[in-house]
Request: fold
Amino acid sequence: MKINIKYAGPESSSWLKVRDIHVTEAVINKKIKDKEILIAHTESDTIGWLRYGYFWDNIPFVNMLFIEKQYRRKGAGKKLMHFWESEMKKRKHEQVMTSTLSNEKAQHFYRKLGYKDAGSLLLPNEPLEIFFIKGLNN
Reply:
């Protein structure tokens, strides 16, 4: 299966607003305008997205990586992450970050991609949030 990555455009807004339930439509539209959402697609389907922002306003930080269930474990998440890392390196960023809950399998995915544990946060009534960092000069 060939997976392509592109920046989300206005045509992606309605698809994203149904799926990315963690942010408002206004946030989705602003992130599309600011080129802070990447879309993974095959020839026939949109299969996932990566949405990012900035930690401390200067370190690129993946806020959401999601692949539709039937397309998981086929390389789409890895391809999205590598594309994003490459784009961040082109923009002269030296490191990138993300996080995941301690009860999610994603922590193993990020470690396989070379992300290192960088600390954690414990909020009331939530599992531990693990933060990861990766240098881009490797």
